UniProtKB/TrEMBL annotation:
Source species of the chain: Pirellula staleyi (strain ATCC 27377 / DSM 6068 / ICPB 4128)
Gene3D superfamilies, A to Z: Alkaline Phosphatase, subunit A
Descriptive protein name: Sulfatase
SUPFAM superfamilies given in the database record: Alkaline phosphatase-like
InterPro entries per the UniProt record, alphabetical: Alkaline_phosphatase_core_sf (IPR017850), DUF1501 (IPR010869), TAT_signal (IPR006311)
């Protein structure tokens, strides 16, 4: 994004003289310094997108564990017909010792679009005409650690910046008193801080964690945001002294982007002390809104708080918000455990979409739902399903995507993606495109090469864009 590239002529010219190598190294150093200065002076300032965006912000609802697509959003009549048969007997892929298992949940057409949605989502089904269901997802490995990290960073082999960090790097944020990227109740066992980290991007672009896996969001705070020993006035005086020392040092340096970044980060942290807790206090919301989300209901309260806070943060100018819900790894107890999971998120998700609509925010807020992979249509342990990376479902809403649409497909039993297939790189390329960012141009030079979220891959799903 902030490249100052050397041309081939520059390289040939410098190589032609006796000091060619040194001159080339000097030019490269100057280019890197120019990038660093521009990025570090105030890295969170709003930046111009590459082209007119459809969406201004992202809410990513991450369901860790591998939600079963064939029980929620990918209706398979053939799976009902072939229930109990071995996959091989009907020409399908799958374990020889396992039997195909129909979904125990009914699917009904929802909305004027008639999208087939499982009875597990009676509330979300009311938003069928807002949803773009992606049924052709696939990823590289059916293992939780690798797949979750790839979903968030595009790579499971190397430590890379998260998609939220890339969006923040590309666009900055609209509220300089808040973090540009917030993650609520992030999962810690799978991926951990990699899922919201900035890797080699400047640290200002990493996600700010609020709460953690299994914690009650009602009691969550941002660690170390408030001083235990100093009043706000005393902190301001202390910070002014430190900043004066920093600026005196800066005045003596020709360029010191790291120090400029430190000065800005101190100021952001001070501003956050009052802005973030104020947004996390939901007492100013009406009782009707709290009830709509399901706050106060034991089954829905924690995820409902995540959804409501996501709306509040986005409304205040936060660029990227991620919500998390663990426990979707259902190798057994599918009927009971999947029902409980869907009950916990159904009403809050419906409320989030409705709340965004009534505030005229859904049109430019990209909401993305999904896990790291799906599950097999054949049974495991009689009442469970195994990991499936070859085909699964996600959905998007708002942010310039077509509503009431099924895009992509798996085979007749739901094992592998077949039509309009979307790899994780394609998903990321499409998300960035909706935000007005060209995934091939959003690069960062590190260790001698240009890196991007999608590596050398990524196709935009143009058919889903409104």
């Amino acid at each position: 994004m902030f490249d100052t590239p050397l041309t081939r002529r520059d390289m040939l010219r410098t190589s032609a003289c006796g000091f060619g190598y040194l001159a080339l190294s000097s030019l490269m150093a100057e280019a890197n310094l120019a990038r660093a200065t521009q990025a570090d002076a105030n890295p969170l300032l709003p930046k111009q997108p590459h082209f007119e965006p459809k969406a201004k912000r992202v809410i990513f609802l991450f369901m860790q564990g591998g939600p079963s697509h064939v029980d929620m959003f990918d209706y398979k009549p053939a799976l009902e017909k072939d229930d109990g048969k071995s996959p091989g007997a009907v020409g399908a892929k799958g374990g020889k010792s396992r039997k195909l298992m129909k979904s125990p949940f009914k699917f009904t057409p929802a909305g004027s679009s008639g999208l087939p949605i499982s009875e597990l989502f009676p509330n979300l089904a009311k938003n069928a005409d807002d949803l773009c269901i992606l049924n052709g997802l696939h990823t590289d490995l059916p293992n939780h650690p690798q797949a979750a990290v790839q979903m968030h960073t595009g790579s499971f082999q190397f430590v890379r910046p998260s998609v939220g960090a890339w969006v923040l790097y590309g666009l900055g944020t609209e509220n300089q008193e808040l973090p540009g990227f917030i993650t609520l109740n992030p999962v810690s066992r799978i991926g951990g801080a990699q899922n919201y980290g900035s890797s080699f991007l400047p640290a200002a672009y990493q996600g700010t964690r609020i709460g953690g896996e299994g914690e009650s969001l009602a009691k969550a705070t941002i660690p170390n945001i408030a001083s235990r020993g100093l009043s706000r006035e005393q902190q301001r005086k202390q910070l002014d002294l430190v900043q004066a020392i920093n600026r005196e040092r800066l005045s003596g340096d020709t360029v010191n982007p790291q120090l400029e970044g430190i000065i800005e980060s101190y100021e952001l942290a001070f501003r956050m002390q009052s802005a973030v807790p104020k947004l996390m206090e939901i007492d100013d919301e009406s009782q009707e809104t709290l009830d709509m989300y399901g706050i106060g209901n034991k089954a829905t309260d924690n995820f409902a708080r995540q959804c409501l806070l996501a709306r509040r943060f986005c409304e205040a100018g936060v660029r990227f918000v991620e919500l998390s819900h663990p426990g979707w790894d259902q190798h057994n107890g599918l009927r009971t455990r999947l029902t409980a999971n869907c009950t916990a998120i159904d009403q809050p998700m419906h409320a989030l979409l409705e709340d965004l609509k009534r505030r005229d925010m859904l049109k430019d807020t990209l909401v993305v739902w999904g896990g790291e992979f799906g599950r097999t249509p054949h049974a495991q342990n009689d009442d469970g399903r195994d990991h499936n990376a070859t085909g699964f479902s996600m959905w998007m809403a708002g942010g310039g995507v077509k509503g009431g649409l099924r895009y992509g497909a798996t085979d007749e039993h739901g094992i592998a993606a077949t039509d309009d297939k979307m790899h994780i790189h394609d998903l990321h390329a499409t998300m960035l495109h909706l935000m007005g960012l060209d995934h091939t141009r959003l690069t960062y030079r590190y260790s001698g090469r240009d890196f991007r979220l999608t590596d050398v891959h990524g196709n935009i799903a143009t058919k889903i864009i409104a």
